[in-house]
Amino acid sequence: MANLSTNIAGLHLPNLFFNASGVCCQHEHELKQLLESDSGSLITKSATYEMREGNPSPRYVPLPAIQSSINSMGLPNEGYEYYLAYAKKYDYSNPKPLFVSLSGLSVADNKKMVEGFVAANLPCVLEINFSCPNVPGKPQLGYDMEAMESALNVLAPIIKKPFGIKLPPYFDIAHFDTAAAIFNKFDNLAYLTCINSVGNGLAIDFETETALIKPKDGFGGLGGLMVLNTALANVNAFYRRCPNKKIIGVGGVTSGKEAFLHVLAGASAVQIGTQLKEEGPKLFSRVKKELEDIMVAKGYKSLEDFRGKVKTL
Ligand code: DOR
């Protein structure tokens, strides 16, 4: 038998799989579906200080021919107090730990939300989203190294406990180096989630010659299989550079096989977005079984047996 259990931010997950923030997690009934699924954990939709309707539709379109998607949701969410209330009534005797994603539109908003959670002193884990590509006029904080460091300087000491951040994909070795050096300054920054969608792609319908989504003239974040290799590179780049931090891999996981590759690259847990949106929460039973079968076939008993052990030529 293969053991898929893992640890993130000091908490035990019965298996490494959960949803990528944004999918199946805006409302309580969706979070309930995740709780009832075979996932090892769950994370809430990125919250802003006030509730948001998000961008006009169509704002998510699957690209089935390439098992991918484009979205410009624009952070529709119920406002942080909704997720705080959910976290307050969450049953922490459940084997699945609860992760809460926060995506303030300013450092001041992130600070207020974090203070709200700290005051409640809950055993959930905060994941601060530094990488939403879809709010018009708001650049992704993760691409502004100085701004990201000052945000961490404000937030990390308030949070005190282990927490994580959701990063955009980086594409240059110098950016991996600079970002990792910043992250390594913060001891309670326990994990990095790599990657958010690949921002500002453009999907065009060949017949109608029209952009597939409405917001931002059709520009939106790319997810699914087309981003797998960028995700693996980011997981591995930070796994190598941040030895005291855990990496959560997200991007391009459609089956146990891509999850296996994420762990080989260094992931301690794996989040699934596009494929979960398309298949629904029953996906978790399938990918768990597929990964277990791969591990048995290769003779691996636990994730530690192969985590980060990708060979290079
Ligand atoms: O692709 C994304 N879409 N990433 C985010 O961080 C937020 C989400 C949205 O709501 O637009």
Automatic annotation (TrEMBL):
**In which pathway does this enzyme or protein participate?**
Pyrimidine metabolism; UMP biosynthesis via de novo pathway
Which reactions does this protein catalyse? Answer: (S)-dihydroorotate + fumarate = orotate + succinate
Catalytic EC class = oxidoreductase
Q: Which UniProt keywords apply?
A: Cytoplasm, Flavoprotein, FMN, Oxidoreductase, Pyrimidine biosynthesis
Dihydroorotate dehydrogenase catalytic domain: residues covered: 4-295
Q: Provide the family line.
A: Belongs to the dihydroorotate dehydrogenase family. Type 1 subfamily.
Q: How does it assemble?
A: Homodimer.
The entry's protein name is: Dihydroorotate dehydrogenase (fumarate)
Per the UniProt entry, what species is this protein from, by scientific name? Phycomyces blakesleeanus (strain ATCC 8743b / DSM 1359 / FGSC 10004 / NBRC 33097 / NRRL 1555)
